[in-house]
Write a structure and sequence with these properties.
212 residues; ten-stranded mixed sheet; DHBP synthase; single chain; alpha/beta; globular; 7 helices; 30% helix
Amino acid sequence: MPEILKTDAAGILSAADAAKIGAAAKGTRTVAFPTESGYALGSTGLIKAATRRLLQIKERSTLKPLPVMVHSVDEAKKWVEWTALADALAVKLWPGPVAFLLKPTAQGRLLTFPEYPNVAIRVPSHSAARAILAASGVPWVYTSANKSGQPPLLSADAVAAALGAELDFIVDGGAVPAGDATIVDATGERPRVTKAGLISAELVQGAPTASQ
């Protein structure tokens, strides 16, 4: 069974617990953790064995790469080719439930497969998620914490009941909202929503862009 580490009432994880989770994920251990769009499963994005393990737990096809989470804009810039549009969108939309599709840097190629030109990268707004990402010092691949095709899991108890036998750690941040992250192609001059989610297309289109 997984080790469960709890946040406080405000959703803050202690520095010691964040460091423990961060080190575990860096070492390919699998973690369920709260985000602003449901619970997620995550681990280091730099070792493909960790990605395969997440996909096995999820019972999802291994033919597509997973999206990536990092703790800050500065960290994102190490892994993707940052654009003027991404910069403008990040001012309004990050941190939050929105991922930008951007071309990987040479280093960022480690996070995806050769046949995929872009990486979906996100800075979450949940404080516990950002704390464990920062403590790990590596980008994480992630997916929603549920079996493929099943409803989202919105509490640590639900995650433990459904997936606990397959996980190493669960960060218990209480109940969280349901929803999907919006995905926005930020490689060009104007944003293009490729997957609708909690951040509306209207809000994305209304965000300042590099040309404004």
